[in-house]
Amino acid sequence: MGKRVRTDLGDLLILTVDIMLLVIAYILSYFLVYGTSTNSLVWNPFVESVPVMVLLYIFLMTSYGLWKTMRLSLGEVIYSVFLTAGTLSALNFLISRFIIDRAYPKYIFMAGFVLAFILLSIWRTLVYWLQIAEHGRKNLLIIGGKDAGRIAVKAIEGMSRLYQVRAVADWRSRNVSKYIEENEVVFLSDDIGGEEKSRLIDMLMSMKKSVYVVPKSYEINILKAHFERVSDKPLIKLRRLELTIEQRFLKRILDLVLSVIGLILFSPVVAAAAWKIKAYDKGSVFYTQERLTRGNKVFRICKLRSMVIDAEKETGPSLVNFEDERVTPIGRRLRANRLDEIPQLFNVLKGEMSIVGPRPERQSFFEEFSRNIPDYKYRTVVKAGLTGYAQVYGSYTSSPEDKAKYDLLYIKEYSFLRDIKIILLTMKIMFMKDKAGGVRKEPDIYELARERGLDITIDISEAAFSQDMP
């Protein structure tokens, strides 16, 4: 509890300094433009706008991932600061022009952005290294079945600053207790047997270990459940997996507004891309394909063509690989920044899709994945989307099972503000290469440990890979 309190106080201190530096940056920008003049007609509205600017900053910094930064790289932290300061400057400019009717010179907002970015970047870099140093590299144990090795690979590739994977163990191993004693942090896979998982969690909590659990679908469904009782018997009532009429109405309004704005803003990009696609092979500019949306309804999705003509003539329906030869040079550039998805704004305008929601899947893949992944069928409870949880928190290489869990989490945690945050995060990841491209072959834990010379105890039985877990 003491450590949690210190962490919360530390987060509040970081936020307080953020706000101080932000206000200083914009005051300096004001004086750069107006000198030392504090004429009440100009200065007072400027001061009155500060609380709104602070609230916008808090919303933007949490949306762009600046509330908890240790799991990010330093480059991503600076990138998030850039996006936060830039978006805030643009919003401040729009507010001054159209809401408070005070047309401040644009130089104030440009200077405010530059100064805020510099000050916040220096401060956040210092905070980042202090937090990393305080946390240190903790020894990590991963317990599970056939998925334990894959989780270990993810931990090594994405969390090596914070955790040193020391052991990967089958939950049925005789040595699990020994591994637990030797490590500070434990990840539990979702393929551990129900009773054994409960016993392990009880043991780990009593030993005061840090525990992270990969959730099963029923555990996600318990999120935001309501407490009730029958006489003296406690119950929890699960929320139905659907949006209310009011939520669907607000979501549709957001879709209409953003799709119209997006089509206007991106029309030059589409025109330029269309010219290059046509010039490359004289083929069609657009590509349509049947996909599924809410209620398993079939519709035709529209994209800028990024692959060769008749790309699936010989292969049949297949996912795009990272270095897929079927992708054209212009297509590769479009896919890298997701610009090939822009025409789907027409699908949003028509009501077939939403801006935010699970990505639409082809019927053949949907049926295949639904047979093997229990969560997958829930993806069509809401409209398919241009972007979603799986896109901003996962990557193109995330497994269908993990993507389904992200989509289920989105439905369970839906709110209007959460959609806005996902849209802002989508702007962030458009220029992050690991979030797009195609399916990459992941190394197994044995291969990765050998390549990197890691001293990892790997205690995974062959049964973990060949047998179904209970």
TrEMBL record:
<feature type="domain" description="Bacterial sugar transferase">
    <location>
        <begin position="251"/>
        <end position="431"/>
    </location>
</feature>
<feature type="transmembrane region" description="Helical">
    <location>
        <begin position="46"/>
        <end position="67"/>
    </location>
</feature>
<feature type="transmembrane region" description="Helical">
    <location>
        <begin position="74"/>
        <end position="95"/>
    </location>
</feature>
<feature type="transmembrane region" description="Helical">
    <location>
        <begin position="12"/>
        <end position="34"/>
    </location>
</feature>
<dbReference type="InterPro" id="IPR003362">
    <property type="entry name" value="Bact_transf"/>
</dbReference>
<feature type="transmembrane region" description="Helical">
    <location>
        <begin position="253"/>
        <end position="275"/>
    </location>
</feature>
<keyword id="KW-1133">Transmembrane helix</keyword>
<comment type="similarity">
    <text>Belongs to the bacterial sugar transferase family.</text>
</comment>
<dbReference type="Pfam" id="PF02397">
    <property type="entry name" value="Bac_transf"/>
</dbReference>
<keyword id="KW-0812">Transmembrane</keyword>
<protein>
    <submittedName>
        <fullName>Exopolysaccharide biosynthesis polyprenyl glycosylphosphotransferase</fullName>
    </submittedName>
</protein>
<keyword id="KW-0808">Transferase</keyword>
<feature type="transmembrane region" description="Helical">
    <location>
        <begin position="107"/>
        <end position="130"/>
    </location>
</feature>
<dbReference type="InterPro" id="IPR017475">
    <property type="entry name" value="EPS_sugar_tfrase"/>
</dbReference>
<keyword id="KW-0472">Membrane</keyword>
